[in-house]
Amino acid sequence: MEMAETATVTSKSMINIPASIRRKYGIKEGDKVIFLETDQGLVLIRVPPLNELFGSGRAHKDELIRAVRELEAEHRKEAAE
Questions:
Q1: Do 5 and 42 share a structural domain?
Q2: On the chain, which terminus has fewer CB atoms closer than 10 Å, C or N?
C-alpha cells in the first residue's frame, strides 16, 4: 500500500519527516538518508548504520565469496594486460 505524507521545506532547507513515515521505516535521530533522483521523481532511502549490517551477509556468504573471487580474477586479468 502506498503512503502519502506532506512535509514543508523550511527557510534553512530543512524537512521534517512525518512521524508515521519515521516509525514505519525506523528512521531515528542521527540516521543518514539518501535522496535518490529517478525518472519518476525523488526517493528517500534510510541508510542503515554499520552495526545493523553486521552479519547480514551470512545468508549470502557463498554468493559474496564467488563475487569477490570473480572481481579479483578480473582485476588480475586487467593488470596483466
A1: yes
A2: N
- Report CA-CA distances (Å) from 38 to 20, 42, 58, 64: 24, 6, 31, 28
- Give Dmax over CA atoms of the chain in angstroms: 55
Does residue 47 surpass a pLDDT of 80?
Answer: yes
Q: Is 13's pLDDT higher than 90?
A: yes
| Beta partners for residue 38, in sequence order | 41
38 and 23 in a common domain: yes
Q: Note whether 3 and 30 are same-domain residues.
A: yes
Neighbours of 46 (CB within 10 A): 16
Domain residues for the domain of 71 are: 51-81
**Closest by Cα among 42, 51, 48, 3 to 24:** 3
